[in-house]
Write a structure and sequence with these properties.
By secondary structure, this protein is α+β, with helices and mostly antiparallel strands. It has six helices and six strands. The protein has helices at about 5-15, 90-105, 105-125, 155-165, 185, 210-230, and strands at about 20-25, 45, 60, 130-135, 145-150, 195-200. The protein is elongated.
């Protein structure tokens, strides 16, 4: 849903009980500022392809005083934690993408993308009045919009969007293309009962207002097609 969790509080609670905290920061790094001095996280992993870098390369941040056992032994690569020949071209691509992301990551650009996301959601609610923006009142990252629509299954929406050239998912980004309802959506109160279908739209820093206007047009047309040919689910 894009909700920004209280990671500082999680860190403090873990450290209070001498528990290490690892964060999957794939949706955080290069999308929002990250300062490990402000948020004293212990371990943090992220992937290059989430900020326009090559697929198949990622990074693990390890707090200096921590000792991490080797994942693959047999060589000194990656500071002795993972032996084997390194994928140098991918690592270089990772670095270039990270530099580009850091250059882009300003308060002005983040505010601009928040505005674009909000306009997208406003147009969705105007054109599809019974749609619901999940976690709309929470502090969210600009990268995500999760929308639930009654009386239509999420997988049908995804199929119709895909046929019309719009990529979305029904769960997390790593389960894109999967038709199983998200546990997160269930947890925030949207029932997994076939009455509500949920789709997740993800935005990049290159996404434009025109892109999202087209997506709203396609979403509206897709729902119209579904409701024309599919018998609506009725409540008992």
């Amino acid at each position: 849903t894009g909700v920004i969790e209280p990671i500082e509080e999680a860190c403090a609670l873990c450290h209070q009980y001498d528990v290490l905290l690892h964060s999957d920061a794939t949706q955080w790094v290069a999308k929002m500022p990250v300062d490990v001095h402000v948020v004293p996280i212990d371990l943090m992993s992220f992937a290059a392809h989430k900020f326009h870098g090559p697929k198949g390369v990622g990074a693990l941040y390890v707090r200096k005083e921590l000792e991490v056992a080797a994942l693959v032994t047999g060589g000194p690569q990656e500071r002795g934690r993972r032996g084997g020949t390194e994928n140098v071209p991918a690592i270089l691509g990772f670095g270039v993408a990270a530099k580009s992301a850091c250059d882009w990551l300003t308060e002005e650009n983040i505010a601009k993308m928040n505005t674009i996301r909000d306009k997208f959601e406003h147009h969705v609610l105007e054109r599809i009045p019974n749609a619901h923006i999940n976690s709309i009142g929470a502090t969210r990252a600009w990268t995500t919009s999760s929308i639930s629509i009654p009386h239509v299954k999420g997988e049908l929406i995804l199929l119709m969007l895909s046929e019309r050239g719009v990529c979305a998912s029904s769960g997390s980004a790593c389960s894109s293309g999967a038709f199983k309802e998200s546990k997160v959506i269930e947890a925030i109160g949207v029932p997994d009962d076939g009455i509500w279908g949920t789709v997740r739209f993800s935005f990049a820093r290159t996404t434009t207002t025109q892109d999202l206007e087209m997506a709203v047009d396609v979403l509206e047309a897709s729902l119209a097609s579904i409701r024309e040919f599919v018998i609506p689910t009725t409540l008992s």
